[in-house]
Amino acid sequence: NAGVTQTPKFRILKIGQSMTLQCAQDMNHNYMYWYRQDPGMGLKLIYYSVGAGITDKGEVPNGYNVSRSTTEDFPLRLELAAPSQTSVYFCASSYSTLTHKNEQFFGPGTRLTVL
Amino acid sequence: DQQVKQNSPSLSVQEGRISILNCDYTNSMFDYFLWYKKYPAEGPTFLISISSIKDKNEDGRFTVFLNKSAKHLSLHIVPSQPGDSAVYFCAASAGIRNTGKLIFGQGTTLQVKP
Fold this sequence. Notes:
Strand content of chain A: over 45%
Number of domains of chain A: 1
CATH architecture of chain B: Sandwich
Number of strands of chain B: 11
Largest interface: A-B, 30 and 28 residues
Number of helices of chain A: 0
Distance between the termini of chain A: 36 Å
Oligomer: heterodimer
């Protein structure tokens, strides 16, 4: 299994540009998450999904959009990029939390710079 | 409002000694706590977890202690090894069994010196 994969690894955007960060997992996980990590800070939840067709906002959703058309993919869309969106973005997935394990598996991250 | 806090940004210990990483939380609804380890340019990886019904959980060299009355948990690594040098994040879940949302602390950078 590849686990959680993210593309691209690095990207530089100009202010006002748009882009989509790709995330895919091959573990058949229902739950998927997008986090951002700013320097010296912990991870903050942007959006999450509990299954195909179901998404919801996390702590810091402004400026982002998501979709979940399949179990495997959970892309994150940035519209009108701003310097405040310069960060490292992590995608994660997990099994159903009915067992209360809550262990999330993370991708390697996408480092985004907005200039 | 930081619900999960790791007040020590960094910690340095000698190889073979104990490393103790601390985490405080404010939300009494948190009922599950996890520690993640992160190497540079990689995503976090799960290390160990503890449910609020327990006060201790061990896994090899790693032990997590939970003090609910103090809203405090700690991760003990014994003995510490150079390969343990990484950033450690504490995370908490507020019993939201249907979503698995986690709140993370800021992280503590551990350096284990040979």
